[in-house]
Amino acid sequence: MKDDQSSKEVASAAIKMALTDRKEENELKREYAKEGLKVAAVDFGGEFTSSVKKIIERAVVAAKRENVIKETHTDQGAVAGATREALSQITSKAIGFNVGGKIGIARRGDHISVSVFFAIGLLHLNEIAIGLGHRAVP
């Protein structure tokens, strides 16, 4: 499989995991395992600025729990960095607001992608945003 195609498939899987409910999440995990993709997902919520650290931590813990990454500095740093990149893409919309959503993580070989799906609260009017980060690890 071409390397750029693998990057695209991993990114797509991370986005799909971030958009699932619990039932869909479990179904996708089984499907992706057959395709050689390791995936994980985890919910989050709270005031954006004070939640950034917790969101990154939740992504790393979920990736370890689901065996998407090993417990090495390189793998953990890749997930933390990709999550930070994904968050940076939506920061201007989310800062100062309550947010809730889901983090999707996917890996195949050297490619790790993290997607964050946000509902950004403003009374009963919610903004929706998705951020995506990618890292390559040996």
Automatic annotation (TrEMBL):
Top-level taxon of origin: Bacteria
Gene3D superfamilies for the chain: Hut operon regulatory protein HutP
One function term, GO molecular function aspect: RNA binding
Keyword Transcription assigned: yes
CDD domains, sorted: HutP
Pfam families: HutP
Keywords linked to the UniProt accession: Activator, RNA-binding, Transcription, Transcription regulation
Methyltransferase as UniProt keyword: no
Quaternary structure (record): Homohexamer.
Family: Belongs to the HutP family.
Function (record text): Antiterminator that binds to cis-acting regulatory sequences on the mRNA in the presence of histidine, thereby suppressing transcription termination and activating the hut operon for histidine utilization.
Protein name, UniProt field: Hut operon positive regulatory protein
Source organism of this protein record: Selenihalanaerobacter shriftii
